Amino acid sequence: MSASLESYIDRVVLVITADGRNIVGTLKGFDQTTNVILDQSHERVFSKSQGVIKVLLGLYIIRGDNVAIVGELDEEHDSKLILDKIKADPLNPIVH
Fold first, then answer.
1. d(CA 32, CA 60)
2. What local confidence, expressed as pLDDT, does residue 3 receive?
3. Number of Cβ atoms within 10 Å of the Cβ of 80
4. What's the N-to-C CA distance of the chain in angstroms?
5. Tens of pLDDT along 30-64?
6. CA-CA distance, 77 to 85, in Å (whole number)?
7. Residue 77 and residue 68: Cα distance in Å, rounded?
């Protein structure tokens, strides 16, 4: 997976972790074990009773063994979302 991340450097990505977290940030680096470094990052915490809450993280490192999915975020589409109005269950962790 790490070789395909090269095209995402300096782009905004969404990382879904194995424990179900959603983290958005600018991909600054990665290594052969898919450890990723995000800058200007935040976590999106989903809830059925409240809208999506953004938790600012800043410069953030995610261990490769906790990375489930990395994808480029369409910033134009994302900016149109009203996250305060989106209510959903959080993702469940991956069970091995």
1. 18
2. 63
3. 8
4. 19
5. 999 999 999 999 999 998 888 899 999 999 999 99
6. 16
7. 23
Query: Could you count the other beta carbons within 10 Å of the beta carbon of residue 14?
Result: 16
Which tokens is 37 given?
Answer: 């470094």
Give the span between the Cα atoms of 29 and 57, in whole angstroms: 16
Rounded Cα distance, 59 and 49, in Å:
29
Q: In which residue are the tokens 């052969």 written? A: 32
Tell me the residue length of the chain.
96
Question: 87 CB contacts (<8 Å, ≥6 apart)?
Answer: 46, 47, 48, 49, 50, 51
Radius of gyration from C-alpha coordinates of the chain: 13
